[in-house]
Amino acid sequence: MQTKDLLQLSEEFGSPLYVYDAAKIQSQYTRLTNAFSKVGSLRINYAVKALSNISILKLLKELGSGLDTVSIQEVQLGLYAGFEPEKIIYTPNGVSFEEIEAAAHLGVQINIDNLSVLEHFGAKYPSIPVCIRINPHVMAGGNANISVGHIDSKFGISVHQMPHLLRIVENTGMNINGIHMHTGSDILDIEVFLYAAEILFDTAKHFSNLEFLDFGSGFKVPYKKDDIETNIEELGKKLSKRFNAFCNEYGRELTLAFEPGKFLVSEAGFFLAKVNVVKQTTSTVFAGVDSGFNHLIRPMFYGSQHHIENISNPKGKERFYSVVGYICETDTFANNRRIAEIKEGDILCFRNAGAYCFSMSSNYNSRFKPAEVLWYEGKGHLIRERENFDDLIRNQVIVEFDKSYELVSKN
Predict the structure, then answer these.
(1) How many degrees, rounded to 5, is the angle at CA 49 between CA 390 and CA 136?
(2) Might you name a Gene Ontology BP term for this protein (predicted)?
(3) Residue 20 marked as a ligand binder
């Protein structure tokens, strides 16, 4: 997308605004499938939690993707978007057994990461195929909040609990059709990932009816110019060779599965916000925008960086600004960032806003959630309307009180 396209969309749909470039999603999907073209059977399951708009799900369905879901609601969204149940894998953590049962009854692939749940499910539903999520105890990923393979992680069944796991499978007679792992996000060291893969291969040897091995995802994307990223082509070459060799050892071809979220949609996303005020203090120049961590919490939550451009003045002289929001708390998107000179009314563009941005938004301070637009073949298509006051009060049940503070009615 070009700057003029983003400016046009901000004028047409207002701000703040999320914009997603369909062509970038498609190119990332193609890049991933090409990297693993030497594998006979490849399955890409898009991680719905990254960006769950139904139009985005439908786009990925047309590209051939399946879905990785972590809640019954995400399963339902996937089915609503037209995905077949067998194209959806459900990997919850810490949910009720009733939710897992509900997902199983919908016919999706169940992925279990807890020994007690595995035993309960196997005893009650031994005929339903189950994937097992293991924790390889390999530390991969960036920020501690998004690294999930370490020894103290709440995710997965420890590889050191394999004897217990095998005893449950034998006692229940359940069918294990897949093995899964996920080590974390923002993976840079391919060798660490390949080391974890060897643990997955060793685990897989204990099961005779496997159909697939799921290696999760966590591939890092560039957040700024010349930033480092996961070398997906090198990983594809090395892991494909090792995976094919394992299939020969195992005795039949298995499916290689991944669950990319950020890799597919992060770079496709742009967040547009209008500058309300430019405020000079004794040491800082603040650019205050018409948004806050209610719309984009990642910088405040775990220090993520989003490149910020002044698309109203892209060739202006650069100055240092702290870009802040309108929430009544510390609400800082960027500190002392070099940005082309900003004036009130300018539109700032936050890049890499496709993953874990709108999906983590809220109505904090009773602010409305922004609209979402899909840029497809040179035109912007509204895929979520901007919220209004009716949306804020839609599910509230209002009670009235008399002067003695007695509840007198409920509407």
Answers:
(1) 155
(2) lysine biosynthetic process via diaminopimelate
(3) no
